[in-house]
Amino acid sequence: MSAFETILTAPTPVAWVEVAAEHWRPLLTDHANCEKKAASTALALIFAYPEDTALGVALARLAREELRHFEQVVRMMQRLEMPFERQAPGRYASALRRHVASAEPRRKLDLMLIGALIEARSCERFQLLAPRLPPPLGAFYTDLARAEARHHELYIEHARANAGDSDWERRLRELAQVEAELATSPDTELRFHSGTLSAPFTPGSRRGALAAATALIS
Predict the structure, then answer these.
(1) CATH of the domain at 32
(2) What angle do CA 66, 42, 12 make, to 5 degrees?
């Protein structure tokens, strides 16, 4: 069973997949920022909970892998002659984190569970997009889906280990409902974790974009 089938309570809308598959070039900028943010989140958790050495070692490995993915995406963008752009934070992760408890140990548990949900959604979307993209990028996304599945399992493992007497599975279901709403409801911009766009995306011919990109990265 895939990671996203274990904890996500709603699938990504077909409409999001259609738009993302057609306009994957501008989506790469957000993808790169997501990889960078995933690494920084792992490092922040290491500093927040230095006494949890098992978590720290696991997250150190995760952060290195996320930074390698960031480097790979940026190199792909360079080969496509796409500039890297600073972006304002999207609504998805920031809205999820508004539901994190303020007091410990509940806060630590919530951060682990939200990490698992984000990685599971990433895994799902990589799997959905991979067969619809040019071969170099499609194969890369297939590999990333496997990595995100491992990351999801890591966060779940440490959430379980830190749950104590709390009903962590009930809390996961609560947060999963919030995540599902954010990933499926109308959104104003195309992001890797956005919902369905509420207005048409600025077009470019998918056939032409695919042909041009394939020539550049093959």
Answers:
(1) 1.20.1260.10
(2) 65
Compute the distance between CA of residue 161 and CA of residue 153 in angstroms, rounded to an integer.
12
Given a contact cutoff of 8 angstroms between Cβ atoms, the answer to whether 159 and 39 are in contact is no
Residue pair 118/148 in contact (Cβ under 8 Å)? The answer is: no
SS3 43: helix
- The identity of residue 100, as a single letter, is V
Per-residue model confidence (pLDDT) at position 54: 96
Strand (E) or helix (H) holding 68: helix 53-79
Interhelix angle for 206-217 vs 135-161, to 10°? 90
Token pair recorded at residue 181? 């709403």
- The letter for the amino acid at 178 is V
Does 190 fall in a domain? no
Length of the chain: 218
The answer to the question of residue 160 being in a domain is yes
pTM: 0.89
Whether the pLDDT of residue 123 is over 90: the answer is yes
Residue 5: per-residue pLDDT: 59
Residues 46, 66: Cα–Cα separation, whole Å: 15
Using omega within 30 degrees of 0 as the cis cutoff, is the peptide bond preceding 13 cis?
A: no
Cα distances (Å, whole numbers) of residue 13 to 37, 195, 216: 24, 8, 30
- DSSP summary character for residue 27: H
